[in-house]
Structure formats: structure tokens, C-alpha cells
């Protein structure tokens, strides 16, 4: 959510920030709505003052026995009360109109975000590992060791397209990856493991900038709950409405959860295999921090995502998203892309974003400065730590062997009963 006071003070800068994202300037229309809202509030306050004065004068007229003046003033006060109620309703309507408009406007980018129109202009800033380039590289669903463990037809029979049924070695590997990530983030990166609801109210989706703009991208139950698109929603919203002590910051959380996305607008994209699903799992990272420390916290979270992939021996590269590709709520985003030999390209496996106080304003999450003063809005950050399904794909494709087997990362052996290979016939050993 944007601060209308800041827009009033720096309308040109606000418009320039929108233009960087490819949006039209909006300060003029927003300030017109703001002026209409403030005019209604002032009119209501003026009418209230008139009513208050009239009420006092009624008593004076009655005391001196002036019945005509008494009746006139009583009628005036009654009229003012009706006027006040009407003006307050109109002010609320104008306020709601302005709030809805502000809620649909993307966050202001940090100055160091590169200009650019789309993903082709993202800037690579880091690369790790040597990509495997195999003459016979297969995609995850065609690798003999894994093929029998994926059943897309049975999943489609019960749920439709973009679902998968996993069994045997692949199902266990998928579970092992999530457990490994949680252990990594809690033991090495100081995050608090959290088990969150996957059904949330409107307020939680709104507070984490998923509503109103992205309602069509998520699923809603018949009684109004939303299925979370990521546990960023429930982890971040856990501090909604609170005034934290500065000493409590930073709060670093991680969770493994089911995630649900309708993938509206993505028809025809990544339909093969399990790269883009309606139901998937992620290990999420969220940080609630002091504004002065949010830039350092984003780098720390990015390092945590890197550490997962390096431990799994998955080559990756990191890019900073350009202005035109940065998500709605983010001020800056780093994407981590894993190398997939089957596709002979890098694909996103983690996105680490800072939203500044954008979400905090929407959900009224603040902290009390240690040195005193008024409560301030916290900064919130989120990132995949990492997407479990996509990590499974990367492990399978990078570990595939000429004989159809898959060599597994050594760090997963403790989670797989000591197994280090999926044989060509789909068995762990």
C-alpha cells in the first residue's frame, strides 16, 4: 500500500516510479480522489461544529424562555445530524475508492533495480557450478529411473491437467528434499520452522498484496477461504496488526507447505512434466526486519537459497530482475535459476524479494524504536528456499546417467536411508 501523504509531497517522483514499471502516471487521479475525500471530511467536521454550537444554543434559548428560537435551533440541529451522517458516508465512500485504487498500484522500485521491459533485460550477477551438457540429456519425466514414478494420466483422471501423482523413489526423494531444506534453514540459517494454515481469510491475502489484483490467480473455497499461493501469505501475515519491540527484530521464519495457483494467463506454458502445477510444495523463507537492515537481510536470504543448491550440487545462476519484470509487491527481486540439462537452460527455482513497508502498511505491522518515538512500519521480505518440485526436477536431471539411473546428492543420503542412487528400474539403493 502506498502512503498518500508521500504522493502529495512528491507526485512527480511517484509518477516516474510507475513509468519505470511500464505503468501510466497516476498521481493526478489519486490526488483528485484524495482531495474529494478530504473535502467531504472537512464538510462533515464543519457540520458537526455547527451542530455542537446549535446544541449549546438550544439550552440557552430554553433557559431564557425563547420558544421560537428553541424550536428553530432544534430543527437546525436535527438537519445538521442528517447532513453529518450523509457527509460521513460520502467520505467513507471516497476513502474506500482511494484505498482500492492505491491497493492496485505496484510497489515503488529501489533505484538500483535495472531498467528494462521484460525478463530478457534481467541482469545476471552471479553464477555457480558447471552446467552438465549431455548428448542424451532427458527431461525429468523421461529419465528411466524416474519415469515409472510419475503418473500424470492418473492425476489428470482425478484432478485434471497440471497435477501429478508421484510414487516410490521419486515420492521419497521429494519428501527428503523438503526435510533437507528445513534442516538447512533452521540449523544453518537461524530460521524458525513454522507450520502454517493453508486456508486464509481475505485479510491475509490483502495484507500480503495478493488481493485485489491477483484474485484470479488463486483458489477460493465456497465459504470464502483462500488456498495460499505460497506460505509467504501466512508467515508474513502472522505479525499483522502488531506493534513489535525493536529487540524482536529480525524475525526469520521458514515453512514447508502445499501451495495452490490457478496459473491464470499461463495457458500453453510449461505444460510438459511438473514444472508448472496447480498444486505444488515450497519451502518458504520470510523475514520481518528493521527498515535499516532490510537490504542486508535480502542478501542473507539469497545466500540461504544459494546454500541449498550448492549443497545439492545443482549449478545455478542469479539475476536481478529489471523494472518491467519485477513483481507487483516487490521493490527488488533476485531470481535464482537452476540448470536443467533436459531443457538445456536455466529455470527459476527461487525468487527472493524485499517489499519494503508495502505489505506492512496494508496489514499495519509496526515496531517500537528502542530509542523511543512513534511506532514505525517494519519491512517484510520473502523468498523460496526453495521450490521443492522444481528442485526435484533439477536433482533428477543433473544426476541422470547414461544407463538410465540417477546419482543423488550425498547430503540427501541421511534422509533416504543411506541411498545414493535411483536405479534405472526406479529403486533406491
User: What is the CATH topology assignment of the largest domain?
Assistant: BirA Bifunctional Protein, domain 2
Please state how the strands of the largest beta sheet are arranged side by side.
1-11-12-13-16-10-9-4
Low-confidence spans: none
Shape descriptor reads elongated
User: How many beta strands in the DSSP annotation?
Assistant: 18
Q: Number of helix segments?
A: 12
**Could you give the distance between the termini?**
52 Å
Query: What is the CATH class name of the largest domain?
Result: Alpha Beta
Account of the 3D structure:
It is elongated, with a radius of gyration of 28 Å. The protein has helices spanning 4-9, 11-20, 27-63, 67-103, 144-147, 152-159, 168-188, 202-207, 232-237, 294-311, 358-363, 388-399, and strands at 123-128, 150-151, 165-166, 192-193, 199-200, 219-220, 226-227, 243-245, 251-260, 279-289, 316-320, 332-340, 345-354, 366-368, 376-377, 379-387, 406-407, 421-422. Strand 14 and strand 15 form a beta hairpin. Helix 3 runs antiparallel to helix 4 (67-103) and helix 7 (168-188) packs across helix 12. It starts with a helix and ends in a 7-residue tail after the last strand. Helices cover 40% and strands 20% of the residues. An eight-stranded mixed β-sheet has the order 1-11-12-13-16-10-9-4.
Amino acid at each position: 500500500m502506498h502512503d498518500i501523504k508521500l504522493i502529495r509531497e512528491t507526485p512527480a517522483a511517484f509518477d516516474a516510479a510507475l513509468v519505470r514499471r511500464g505503468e501510466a502516471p497516476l498521481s493526478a487521479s489519486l490526488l483528485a480522489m484524495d482531495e474529494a475525500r478530504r473535502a467531504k471530511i472537512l464538510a462533515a467536521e464543519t457540520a458537526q461544529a455547527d451542530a455542537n454550537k446549535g446544541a449549546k444554543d438550544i439550552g440557552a434559548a430554553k433557559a431564557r424562555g425563547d420558544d421560537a428560537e428553541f424550536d428553530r435551533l432544534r430543527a437546525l440541529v436535527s438537519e445538521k445530524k442528517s447532513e453529518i451522517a450523509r457527509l460521513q458516508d460520502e467520505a467513507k465512500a471516497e476513502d474506500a475508492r482511494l484505498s482500492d485504487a492505491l491497493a492496485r498500484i505496484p510497489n515503488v522500485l529501489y533505484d538500483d533495480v535495472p531498467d528494462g521491459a521484460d525478463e530478457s533485460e534481467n541482469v545476471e550477477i552471479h553464477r555457480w557450478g558447471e552446467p552438465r551438457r549431455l548428448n542424451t540429456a532427458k527431461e525429468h519425466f523421461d529419465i528411466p529411473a524416474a519415469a515409472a514414478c510419475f503418473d500424470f494420466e492418473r492425476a489428470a483422471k482425478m484432478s485434471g491437467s497440471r497435477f501429478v501423482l508421484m510414487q516410490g523413489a521419486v515420492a521419497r526423494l521429494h519428501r527428503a528434499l523438503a526435510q533437507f531444506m528445513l534442516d538447512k534453514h533452521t540449523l544453518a540459517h537461524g530460521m524458525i520452522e513454522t507450520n502454517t494454515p493453508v486456508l486464509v481469510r481475505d485479510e491475509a491475502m490483502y495484507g500480503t498484496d495478493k488481493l485485489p489484483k491477483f484474485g484470479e490467480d488463486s483458489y477460493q473455497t465456497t465459504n470464502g477461504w483462500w488456498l495460499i499461493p505460497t506460505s509467504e501469505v501466512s508467515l508474513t501475515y502472522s505479525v499483522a496488526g502488531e506493534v513489535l519491540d525493536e529487540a524482536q527484530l529480525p524475525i526469520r521464519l521458514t515453512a514447508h507447505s502445499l501451495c495452490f495457483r490457478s496459473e491464470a494467463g499461463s495457458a500453453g506454458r510449461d505444460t510438459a512434466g511438473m514444472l508448472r502445477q496447480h498444486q505444488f510444495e515450497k519451502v518458504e523463507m520470510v523475514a520481518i526486519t528493521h527498515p535499516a537492515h532490510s537490504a542486508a537481510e535480502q542478501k542473507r536470504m539469497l545466500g540461504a537459497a544459494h546454500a541449498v543448491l550448492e549443497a545439492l550440487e545443482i549449478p545455478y545462476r542469479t539475476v536481478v530482475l529489471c523494472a518491467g519484470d519485477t513483481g507487483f509487491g516487490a521493490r527488488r527481486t533476485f531470481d535464482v535459476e537452476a540448470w536443467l540439462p533436459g531443457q538445456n537452460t536455466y529455470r527459476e527455482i527461487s525468487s527472493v524479494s524485499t517489499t519494503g513497508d508495502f505489505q506492512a502498511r496494508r496489514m499495519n505491522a509496526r515496531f517500537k524504536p528502542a530509542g523511543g518515538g512513534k511506532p514505525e512500519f517494519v519491512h517484510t521480505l520473502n523468498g523460496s528456499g526453495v521450490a521443492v518440485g522444481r528442485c526435484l526436477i533439477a536433482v533428477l536431471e543433473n544426476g541422470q546417467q547414461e544407463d538410465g539411473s540417477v546419482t543423488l546428492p550425498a547430503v540427501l543420503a541421511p534422509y533416504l536411508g543411506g541411498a545414493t542412487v535411483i536405479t534405472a528400474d526406479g529403486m533406491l539403493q
